[in-house]
Amino acid sequence: MVRVFVTGPAGVGKTTLVERVAREVERWGYIVGGMITKEVRRNGRRIGFKIIALDTGEEGTLASLRGTSHLLGVPFGKYVVHVDELERVGVSAIRRALVEADLIVIDEIGPMEYKSDEFVKAIGEVLNSDKPLLAVVHRRMVDKFRPLGKTHVLSVENRNMEFGIILDEIMRELKAIG
């Protein structure tokens, strides 16, 4: 079973690559599910992260700067992680993808997301499934996932080439299984 893990420094284009692959896979008629994480910026400054369910477009707040949100959460550096929102939007999207999707996308598997026991459980369910997986893994956690699939380290120089390589890997797998 193909499991593709994408990692690299902040801002290199990991989420963009995953979104491009997901759109291309959908263009071929396959169902893509799961979640992506995007920065939330105000006046050019990052103030948090949101989660978006790929199947429904539903959004939630993953994290916000301490003191800037009415939502309660778990402290994490200068942010507060909103575990309830992660579970409501992200974990639900991952679990739906396990049932409905041809390709599961998870952006990102990282320390913030690991504040949720339900997220950790959902990752285990995905890894125990026979579904193809495309996931962004935070650089601090990549060694934990490296033995479980193929890891691609993105850079500004290689990101366009890696897009083609990753898309080919996933499309080969999807065509082989159905």
Radius of gyration: 16 Å
For the largest beta-sheet, the strand count, sense and barrel status come to:
9 strands, mixed
- Structural class, by secondary structure, is alpha/beta
| Dominant shape | globular
Order of strands in the sheet with most strands? 5-6-4-3-2-7-8-1-9
* pLDDT < 50 stretches: none
Tell me the helix content: 25-40%
Q: What oligomerization state is this entry in?
A: single chain
Spatial separation of the terminal alpha carbons: 13 Å
Number of strands: 9
How many helical elements?
Answer: 5
SSE string = EHEEEEEHEHEHEH
Q: How much is the average pLDDT?
A: 95
Report the β-strand fraction as a percent range: 25-35%
Structure description:
With 178 residues, the protein is an alpha/beta fold. It has helices at residues 14-27, 83-100, 117-127, 142-145, 159-177; strands at 3-7, 32-42, 45-53, 59-65, 74-76, 79-81, 103-109, 133-137, 150-153. A 9-stranded mixed sheet has the order 5-6-4-3-2-7-8-1-9, sandwiched between helices. β7, α3 (117-127) and β8 (133-137) form a beta-alpha-beta unit. α1 packs parallel to α5 and α2 (83-100) packs parallel to α3. The longest helix has 19 residues, at 159-177. The radius of gyration is 16 Å and the shape is globular. The mean pLDDT is 95.
